[in-house]
Each structure stands twice: as C-alpha cells, then as structure tokens.
Amino acid sequence: MLTHGTVLLSVAAVACGLPSTVPLQLSEGFWRGDFTVGVQNFSVSQENSSERANAKEDLQLTIDTGSFAILVKEGLYKPGPATQQTNISEFIQFNGASEDGIAPASETIFYVRDDVQFADVTVHDFLAGNITFGDDLPGDGVAGFSPPASGNEDLSSGQGLIETICAQGDLTPCQFGLALGKDRQGSFIFGEIDASKISGDVTVLPTTKTDSWTVRNATAADAPNIVIDGTPFSPILATFDSGTPNIIGSLQQVRDILTLVDYNITEQTNEDHITVALGTYDCARTPARVGFSFPPSTAVHYIDLAANELNRTADGRICTANILGTSTVDAPQWSIGQTWFQGRYVQHDLDNNTISFADLA
Ligand SMILES: *[C@@H]1O[C@H](CO)[C@@H](O)[C@H](O)[C@H]1NC(C)=O
Ligand SMILES: *[C@@H]1O[C@H](CO)[C@@H](O)[C@H](O)[C@H]1NC(C)=O
Ligand SMILES: *[C@@H]1O[C@H](CO)[C@@H](O)[C@H](O)[C@H]1NC(C)=O
Ligand SMILES: *[C@@H]1O[C@H](CO)[C@@H](O)[C@H](O)[C@H]1NC(C)=O
Ligand SMILES: *[C@@H]1O[C@H](CO)[C@@H](O)[C@H](O)[C@H]1NC(C)=O
Ligand SMILES: *[C@@H]1O[C@H](CO)[C@@H](O)[C@H](O)[C@H]1NC(C)=O
Ligand SMILES: *[C@@H]1O[C@H](CO)[C@@H](O)[C@H](O)[C@H]1NC(C)=O
Ligand SMILES: *[C@@H]1O[C@H](CO)[C@@H](O)[C@H](O)[C@H]1NC(C)=O
C-alpha cells in the first residue's frame, strides 16, 4: 500500500531450508500470506506438536511491497514472552485500503520488538507495529516487504523483513518474486526467478537503492510511461506496489485520463481531507485499457482485461475504472498495484537493486 507518514516520536541457492514457494491467495482485493507475530513460548509443549500448532497465532497479512512494516490490526496483537516495548510510534495513511480501491486508511501505530515468522523462517527483535487506533484494514494487517522509507529517522535504523532474512544469512542471493495468477492463486518465491513459471521476455528495471520498488530513470526519456488504449499518456515515476488494489496517481493526471476516455469522474473527500477521484463507466461499453511501457522497449504491458474492471455495482451497470487519483500523490508519481501483477511474475533483486517482470507461463 502506498504510504505517506509522519513519525511522531536461484532456488537451489536458498539456504537453511526455506521453502522455495509460499502460497498466497487473493482475498477482497489483497494477496494474503500466513505470518506469526509474537511467537509463543514453546518450551513447555515443544514435544507436543498439536498443542504447539494451537498456540501459534497465525495472522493473514497483506503482502505489500509498497510499505515496509509488519502491522497488526487493532486488537489482534497480544504481547508474548519475546515482546519488548519501544517508544517508537507512527501515524500512517494508506491509499487503497478497500477492495474497490477507494478507501484511504489512517492508522496510529506503536512499535514493539518481537519475533516474526514467515514461511518457517523466524526473525528476532523485529520492529512490529501494534495498531492501537485507526480505520479498518483488510485481513489481519499488513506485511511490508520494502525497505524502511528513507528520511524516517526512528525507523530507518530498522530493516525490512526481507532484508533482515537476507542479513541473517537465510536467503542468498537476496531476491524474491511474486507470481500472482489470474485465478486468485499466487506464490511468494524465495531466491532467483523460477524460469519454469515464466514465458517470453524478462524486463529488467533499475530501482532506487533506498526503496527498491521505485524505478530509477537516469533521464526523463527513459522514464516508464503510462499508456492508455495504445497511446503513451505521460512519463511517470513508477512504484510497484503489490499491496494496493489498483493503479494510483495524482488527482490531476487521473482526472485528465478519465476525461480523455470519457468516463464519469466521482470525487470524495474524507474527514482527513484526503480527496480521491475515481472513474465510472457504463459496463456495456468497451473499457479503456491501462498499461505501462518501459523504454527503450515500446511494448505495452496492460492490466489483464478481467482485472481492468475494478468493481461493478450490484445491478451490474456501473463499472469502476482501475485507476484512482488521490491528493496524497503528486504528479508524475504512480503506484502500480496488484491488478497489474495478475498474470505476471515480478522479481525483486535487493543485491543489484533491480525489479524484473515477465508473463506467467
Ligand atoms: C498434546 O496436547 C493435546 C492438547 O492439549 C492433548 O490432547 C494431547 O494429549 C497431548 N499429547 C501428548 C503426547 O502429550
Ligand atoms: C497493543 O496495544 C493494545 C492496546 O493499547 C495493548 O493492549 C496490547 O498489549 C498491545 N500489544 C503489544 C504486543 O504490545
Ligand atoms: C519459556 O518458558 C519456560 C518454562 O516456563 C521458562 O523457563 C522460560 O524462561 C520461558 N522463556 C521465555 C523467553 O520467556
Ligand atoms: C526513546 O528511547 C531511546 C532509547 O531507548 C531514548 O534514547 C530516547 O530518548 C527515547 N525517546 C523518547 C521520546 O522518549
Ligand atoms: C525521471 O522521469 C520523471 C518523469 O518524467 C521526471 O520527472 C524526472 O525528472 C526523471 N528523472 C531524471 C533524473 O531525469
Ligand atoms: C455519468 O454521468 C451522467 C450525467 O450525470 C449520468 O447520466 C450517467 O448515468 C453517468 N454514468 C455512469 C456510468 O456513471
Ligand atoms: C462496488 O460494488 C459494490 C457492489 O458490488 C457496491 O456496493 C459499491 O458501491 C461499488 N463501489 C463503487 C465505487 O461503485
Ligand atoms: C547481482 O548481485 C550478485 C550478488 O551481489 C552478483 O554476484 C551478481 O553478479 C549481480 N548480478 C548482476 C546482473 O548485476
């Protein structure tokens, strides 16, 4: 999920028995995986696996390459023996926190240090966020897979989950991929790209070092483009964000695109003064196709047609476009959300600071 916040105060090379592939499911617009936050003290019942299984509190968290923190939804995070309180707190606003892509969410978070487990690998003393007040979030919370945002002094001393797994020697080379199908089933894959799962060309893009999900363009000419129905609309600053349901840009650029394709524009402003602009169209018309191109290639990588329609009213007549404008984003920034990922394999290489993608086989 795209955040803007302020701090108040090769598979064979994968080490240590990490499973190479972890199943993910699309639920209510978000891809979820199982995590354990605050591992229970098993020493009493270590021999009793059924008791141990019951003691584990699995949380279904959104796999979010657009934020960095593990955040547990209000009321769900009980302290365990490994929990250490910190005095770090944060206020975060998410864009696109609901299935129809519209709802922003504001959250007040107190961080603790704790054990976090994902796919049988445990990290200790990890900064995990206890949401103490805020809007509803999908599932049990969010699992961020990006590095901490730069310029966030209290938090940048910490590390993102995947960086921590790499730093403790559990993942070499430091790479992972998301293979998200068109059938609501996906995989989180540790290590190098699994070549058996892809077809066609692999596009490799350099990313910024501090935030390996944002494409780095050396000049304006090599910036990615957002493409509408075959015509490049504008060069953009692109961030890949598996935890956002749709494609999110600035209010003005989204209004311009919606006007161009003759959609109706609906605007909403919430109590936090965040304005969103969404497009609606008659479901009977041919929808506009939204895609991206990455110079020097001119190939356009469109959102899969089935995912292109983000929502449809109960009577089946009014469809919602897959792009959303928000006042929390400044042009030319765009966030490429999970609907674009469907049918693709998106790979993050944290050693070389690249993001790559290819079509799923
Ligand atoms: C394991 O724990 C379960 C649940 O408390 C109990 O029913 C079972 O008898 C225990 N098994 C052993 C081998 O202690
Ligand atoms: C999270 O916050 C709630 C409410 O303040 C508190 O009851 C709970 O113990 C906290 N959990 C942790 C792990 O600190
Ligand atoms: C776990 O439980 C055992 C037995 O009750 C206790 O001796 C040990 O100190 C506990 N460990 C932690 C980290 O709390
Ligand atoms: C937070 O804790 C750190 C050390 O644990 C301390 O140096 C710092 O002064 C504390 N900050 C506040 C605002 O209490
Ligand atoms: C990258 O592309 C964006 C979008 O065109 C542009 O605003 C920015 O200046 C470019 N960066 C550099 C370093 O040229
Ligand atoms: C678009 O707006 C017009 C004029 O307000 C309205 O008649 C029409 O039903 C709207 N269509 C959709 C799909 O929202
Ligand atoms: C999305 O669809 C649901 C019904 O399926 C409807 O209640 C909701 O208002 C729709 N959202 C938008 C933005 O049209
Ligand atoms: C990527 O990084 C690894 C490890 O740091 C290095 O061995 C490899 O040569 C790099 N690959 C590319 C294509 O830069």
Structural class by sheet pairing and helices: mainly beta
CATH topology of the largest domain: the name is Cathepsin D, subunit A, domain 1
Uncertain residue segments: 4-14, 41-46
Number of E-type strands: 25
**DSSP strand content:** 35-45%
Q: What's the gist of this structure?
A:
Keywords: Signal. The chain is mainly beta and 361 residues long.
Helix-strand layout with pairing:
Layout: E1 3-7, E2 21-27, E3 30-37, H1 49-55, E4 58-64, E5 70-72, E6 84-94, E7 105-118, E8 121-134, E9 141-144, H2 153-156, H3 161-167, E10 175-180, E11 185-190, E12 198-206, E13 225-228, E14 231-235, E15 237-240, E16 247-250, H4 251-260, E17 264-269, E18 275-282, E19 290-293, E20 300-302, H5 305-308, E21 309-312, E22 318-326, E23 333-336, H6 338-341, E24 344-349, E25 354-360
Parallel strand pairs: 4-9, 5-8, 15-23, 16-22
Antiparallel strand pairs: 1-6, 2-3, 2-11, 3-4, 3-7, 5-9, 6-7, 7-8, 10-11, 10-24, 12-25, 13-14, 13-19, 16-23, 17-18, 18-22, 19-20, 21-22, 24-25
This protein binds 2-acetamido-2-deoxy-beta-D-glucopyranose (8 copies).
What would your notes on this structure say?
- A hairpin with a 2-residue loop joins strand 7 (105-118) and strand 8 (121-134).
- The protein has two domains: 3-189, Beta Barrel (Cathepsin D, subunit A, domain 1), CATH 2.40.70; 198-360, Beta Barrel (Cathepsin D, subunit A, domain 1), CATH 2.40.70.
- 10% of the residues lie in helices and 45% in strands.
- The strands form three sheets. Strands 15, 16, 17, 18, 21, 22 and 23 form a seven-stranded mixed β-sheet that branches. Strands 3-4-9-5-8-7 form a six-stranded mixed β-barrel. The protein has a four-stranded antiparallel β-sheet with strand order 14-13-19-20, with no helix packed on it.
- The protein contains six helices and 25 strands.
- The site of one 2-acetamido-2-deoxy-beta-D-glucopyranose has 6 residues, from strand 8.
